[in-house]
Amino acid sequence: MTIERQQAPPLQWVARWLDTELDALLDSLVDGELAELPELAVARDDPRAEIRHSVRVHLIALADGLNRSPLEGELTLPAFISRHTRALARQDVPSLPALLRAFEKIHAGVWQRLTAALREGPFHVAKERRAEVLEQASAQLFAYFQLASNETASAYATERALLERRAMSQRSTVVNGLLNGSVTTTAAEQALGYDLNAVHVGYVAWVDELSDLDRLDTALATLSEHLRPRQHLSVPAGERTQFGWITCHNGSWLEILRGYRLPEGIHCAWGSPQQGADGFRASHRDALEARRVGETTGLARGNRAVLFDDVAIASLASRDLCSASAFVHRQLDKLAGTDELAGRLLETLRVYLNELASPTRAARRLHVHPNTVVKRVERIEAMLGRRVDPASLALRVAVELAPMVRLQPRSSTPLSSDPTVPVDAAPAPRASSG
Fold it and tell me: Which domains does the chain have, with CATH numbers?
C-alpha cells in the first residue's frame, strides 16, 4: 500500500518517506558531503561513519518535527547537536564555514530526493497534491535547517570564545611572569609561541570608552597589516588597555607608525626597539613611559601614535616633576604660562628649534607665513629677555618639558608611575585577536 492511497497529511507523508528511505538517503548525502567538502574528513579516524551519524541525527530530528503539528510547539534540535558542535569547535576541525556549508548541502540533497519521490516510485503523489506537499515540506525544511545552522553557529562561536578567553588568560599570566622575571625565557617561548631572541618593539594601546574595544581590535589588526611584523603578540591589560609586542624584518615600522592615523578615540604609545628577553621588558617600559608623557602633554589626544624616542627627553627629565617645573619656569618664564598666547608661542618655539632656527621650514610645519614665524620669535625673545639660541640644550629641554608642567602649579608633586608590573594590576583579561 502506498502513502498516496493512505492520503496521509503532507508533512506526515514527508516524515514517513524520510523514515523509509533513511539509509539510502544517508548514503547519498554523505557521499555528496565528502565529495564537495573534503575538509569535513580532516583529522578523523572514521570520517564517513562520524559524518553519517551526524546527518542521521538531523534527519531523525527533522522527521520528528514533521510528525508533530506546527501548533504543538517550535522546532527543537536534539541536545546532542550542541554537544557535538562544541566538541568540534574545541578541535577547530572542521571550521564553522564548512559546517554551515554542510547544512546547505544536506538541505539541497533532501530536497532533490524529495522532489524525485513525489514524481515516481512507491512514494509518488498525485499531481493535484504535489503543490501542497511541496509547499509545506519546503517551509518545514527551510525552518529546520535555518534553526540547525543558527544553533550550530551559536554553539561553535560560544565554545571558541570560551577557548580564546582561556588562552588569553594563560597568555596574560605568562607575559606577566616574563615581565616580572618569574617565568623563564624558554618556558615563555613555549607557552606563547613567540621567539624572544629577536628585536622587540612594545606598545600600549587604549581607548577612551569601553564601547570602543571592538574598534581597538580592528584598528590594531589594520595597523598590523601595514607593519607586516614577523611576530605579533598581544594581551589585554585592564578594561580599556592592550599590551603588545612586534618584531619586524627592518626599520620600516617607524616610518609607517609616524604616518599612520589612528581612529577617533583610539590611542597608542610605542617603545624603542630592544633585543632579547631583557629588551622585551625594556621596550614595554618605554611604551608605558611614552603613554605617560603622551597623556600628560596632550600628544596622545591626537590621531598619531606616541613614540618613546620622540618623548625620551621629556620622559627622563620629568621623573621629578617638581624640579622639572621649577626648571621650566626659570628657563621660559612667561612662556610657561597657561594662556592661549603662551601656548601658541611655545609651540612656535618648539617647531623653530626642531627646524634648526629656519623660519621657512618652521612656517611650513605651522602652516603660516615665514614672516609670522619671525615676528613670533621676536616676541618670544622679548618675553624671555634674551635671544633664542638653537644650540642651547637647556632651552630645548625646557621646551620639551613645558607641556607637562605649564598647567601644573609650581609646587606640584611628581606623577606616580610604576611601569614594572603592568599586567598584575590589570583586571581579568578579555578575549581579543592575537
Answer: 3-163 (1.10.490), 194-315 (3.30.70.600), 319-405 (1.10.10.2840)
